[in-house]
Amino acid sequence: MQRLTKSLRLLPAGTGKSPLQALLLLNGFFPTPSSSYSTSEPVEMSFEVYQGEGQPTQPPLITLHGLFGSKQNWRGISRALVRKVPRKIYTVDARNHGESPHSIVHTSRVMSEDIRLFLEQHQAPKAACLGHSMGGRAMMYFARKYPELVERLIVVDISPISVPRGTEEMKHIFDAMVNLNLSPSLSMSEGRKIAREKLLEATEDETVDFIMLNLRKDPETGAFSWACNASVLRDFLTRFEDYRTNIDQLPPYPGPTTFICGSHSSYMRREHWPEILEMFPEADIHWLDAGHLVHFEQPQEFISIVTEFLK
To answer: What class of enzyme is it (predicted)?
Structure first.
């Protein structure tokens, strides 16, 4: 098995910055609203590709992580899957996350266009699409807007109907991230300790540990930053609640679909299933003994379900 890595970035246009400043903006070293430079045009997402020993005989699989996540969250799952299915697997960083470009726009619609551009650039006529949480909503939108590009769809622990968290709680998290002020003289461990304490004032422990994976420290300047574009994500929180209105304007996706959800998670409600079948008439659903991070908590069962579905 081989893994190839490539990071693609868009240079900011019309920012009025020097080349050095533009590069710093690209890498998120000015964690203020002014660091968000790109438009609603699709961005070239950073990605990793996994491939088994043989030549792929089926369309590739593209995986898209959830809020605060990155392509690295799917390394273990991808390495296991390429041993079982004859597909190339791409894990991508969503815009405003990981190593992908930051943008002033963050909606399922524009993330859907990012996926469309990705397929075009990789000359893939269609792909199997897998998305978790925020990524699941983007993939559902993509499948309903471009069904001819989606061979099959896997949605992990997210509903197209509603989400359990209110925007007010999420705003407290993002406020803590945006307002964090760490001295460059602090070590990474010292900065992490302070950042974690601030985030714990806004949310519970489990979420904090996941968010902390985004903290970065520049080795040359010592400056701390977040890999995700916290200020823009905060500004687009209310759009998360508008998702149902927007996706209902699109026709149902007629292709094979499976939902994999945690029985202890509140991101999918069983009573919504009849409505979801109207949107995805060929869908089935699997309930695993897990919370929201189904693929972390039950990796073997998750891999088994995905493998069977992809074959």
So the answer is: hydrolase
